[in-house]
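Supplementary Data S3. Sequence and structure tokens for construct A.
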Amino acid sequence: MPTPRRQVLKSLAATLLAPAFARAQAPAAPVKLAMVESLSGPFANTGEAVYRNLLWAVERVNQRGGIKLPGGARPLALERYDSKGQPEEALAALRSAIDDGAQVVLQGNSSAVAAVLVDAVAKQNERDPRRGVLYLNYSAVDPVLTNERCSFWHFRFDAHADMRMAALVQVLRDDQSVRSCYLIGQDYSFGQAVLREARRQLGVQRPDVQIVGDELHPLGRVKDFLPYAAKIKASGASAVITGNWGNDLTLLVKAAREVGYDGKFYTFYGNALGAPAALGEAGVGRVIAVADWLPNLPTARSEAFYQSFRQRFPRPQDDYVHMRMQLMIEALAQSIEKAGSTAIVPVARALEQAQVTLAGQAGTMRAADHQFQQALVVGQMDRVGAPGVRFDVEGSGYGFRVVRVIAPQNAELPTTCRMVRPT
């Protein structure tokens, strides 16, 4: 029988060991990711579509055991913050995310929002490095974000506007049916950059093409695009070039159909979020879109990737999958593991060197400006079942046949970035 002294010692040991045992049994603290996006207002559908992509990517990492770190594996946790598509709201969302312990901010739908986040993240990391964050951008494609306004804390995983335009014009250059173009875009930094680069590239690649319209409209505030569509038709333009996205694109192409415009649309985002359904038969053979990946890319691994997304999100209206968002989360997971830490400077340095592959698609982060380098594809809208169109978009009956693949080395453009790195 134990003596009273031994009983006291055993009780004391149990008391001292209990917290350590509880910590060992407790779930590992997650690495918090904060998605800052429009979840209300005119572009809410774009935010929800992005969330599905990011959620799927995070689930894939967690299903294989999470992030492997020296102290044990840690899961990723994705949290949502509504920016309402406004820079001021995005800043408030960023502050909330940091207060909630987020270590990585994810945003992309709006270059205007991206610009304020780049500055705000840099100031946060300088002012309070213990609560520093990295900013991963999957869609904000104003070229200045990885040129004049590049930041060590910002990484872009989409091709910027000039890269996308170069890919589109490669196809337009060979399309001799296009004799005149109408340029239309959203009136903010990204839309202005698209139109500026369209003018420049047409001057170089197709100087014979006449620009018969050049117009900017308010972002997210136009409810009736019929007056714009009427001007496009009246101009006699054989093609429209636009970087419009979300409802601004869907309403534009719907109005064009209603006025009977029969020219082509060269778009950045005409392959999703209601645009194909809005055009219907009027878009067959006439809508061209550039992307980092398309579901009808003719490879077995690409098809399996797309099919697995459709199994996860079976509703036709949820059909909006982007390879770049998957590669982005894979690159982040890889970089945290390589750094052996969630500290933002080691992770950023590892992310600068990231090389990632998924479902046969590959990409590399360029350290000079933090612009991801990957292949681009250009597709043309057609009926599902037509040659090269096995999968449609959002249950519309229309999909995109791949007509051009641009290798990463051919999609790459020089940068003017002068990166300032922490010492």
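Construct B, processed identically:
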Amino acid sequence: MNDFSLKISIISDLHCHHSSTKEKETYLTSDMLRSPVNDHPVESLIKLIEKDQLSTDLTLCPGDFTNRSDQQGFISSWDFVNEIHNCLKGKDLIATLGNHDVDSHEKISNYNLEVAKGIKKDFPLKNDGDRDTLWSKGCVFVESENFRILVINSAHFHYNKEHAVGGKVDSNLLDYVEEYLNEINDDKIFIALSHHHPTNHSRLGLGEHDIIVNGTELLELLGKHSCDLFIHGHKHDAFLRYHNLTESNGRIPILSSGSFSATSNTIYTGRRNHFHMIDIEKKNKVCYGRITTWTFMPKNGWKLMHDDGGFDTYTGFGCNKNIQEIASDIISVVGKSVTYKWEDITTKLPEVNYLIPIEAEKLTNLLKSQGFLIAPPLSQSPTIISNVKAVI
């Protein structure tokens, strides 16, 4: 039985367009100067990557490179993504299409994929055969030594304005995926990538009309074949949760990626712009992930920060232990100590590194009710836990 590890960077929903466009919907226009550095999302990130010596194995892009099928924005955004990927010294770059990348409103021509196919430069996949399969079937499996990515074009049926309401997978795609996975007999890290969300994501008034049609069937199928993570974009609302499966009685972590540079999220929901990196380990068929998230603020560039409009700077997924049990274990480890190093907690109880945000909040509240305070919060990489009762 093999163990696998993978470092992933995620760049989603750039919504890049030329500055002359009437609708100003991005911090990243195709013709903007790179000075001042902290006003340019790409240049600022590259400086951060170089300073902190960040690196990746794999870059995933869940779509919406451009905005409203802006041709120059599409061309430039793919170049931007490649620039970031190369700076990270990444090996594999895998992307899918978003609804803005498909010319369903016939802005350029009456063929909805004319721009997407005409960009070339290995968009959205390097291998010719993989691209052909994605165009024809609406999905493709990309295989590597230690990972398997199911790339889904959830905008596959956006033939025109009428059909471009939400995402969709059909029975042919589901049959293809099942037949493919039935032949698999390994434990590689298995990730699904799409633009639209496969399960309801209507918080913050974001609506329910754009969910992937047949998304539940897709998740059940992926769960049956031990999918480790589902990543999507589109909502511009960074959100990490589990989808509980019915047939396999398991669950799949679902990461809604924050938008890299769109402005609509800050205007309508107050959500920030994000760049995520995920460290994944899979041992004995059990997958754990740790996510680090940087936030972009105009004039300040990319920072590790925490605010109510953002996403946890540090979070994770894969913990299968009851939160009440974890709280009891922590209290037992701390004992009567006034303060205790958090790194010693994670050494003895590593599962605390892999809590999704809602689990981390629940654990924090349980400990607080018993007089134990974590500082800084779990979302910001704690250093100590204090026993208030021991002080008294």
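The chain has two domains: 4-317, 323-391. DSSP finds eleven helices and 16 strands in the chain.
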